[in-house]
User: What shape does this take?
Amino acid sequence: QHVPTGNQIWFPAFITQFTETFTSNWRSEPVMGRPDHLKTFTGTSRAVSLGWDCPAADAKEAVSNLKACGRLAQFLYGSYHDPKNSLSMTGAPVLKVKFANLLQDCSANSSYPGGVEAIIKSFVYEPVPDAGFFDSSVDFAHGEMLAPRVVTCMITMDIIHMHDVGWRNNPEKK
Assistant: This one.
């Protein structure tokens, strides 16, 4: 779901890759007389890489897959009151993403059931030439087009935690 507009897309796909990375971030300060630096914890970040293949059984489905890829690419741009004025941005390109039980927001106050807020750092889509193409004008206003039978997609994203994470100091519980 594109947070600024509420628009949603869905990919009928086969998952080819899922990687979730948690990075503990530390600031390092050299101190005179110590062999190692002093470390100050600054936070933990969470990043996800997700890859999938979108196969198409017919030309109409292939065009639909291309449209979904185009819409996802469009989601990566800001929303503007006046597209000709870069100072009129009304919304940053933040998405809510859900992938079964592997990528979800488990907090009780989630505004998009199950979705995590994310900043997409990169989106790659690539037609698979060996699978072939449909040569069709299905649902395409400008005449014939090539629609790939399979499109491979990959996104990398940073997760934005919208609820409390970490531990509470509670000496009564052990």
In short: The chain is about 10% helix and 45% strand. The first helix runs from residue 59 to 75.
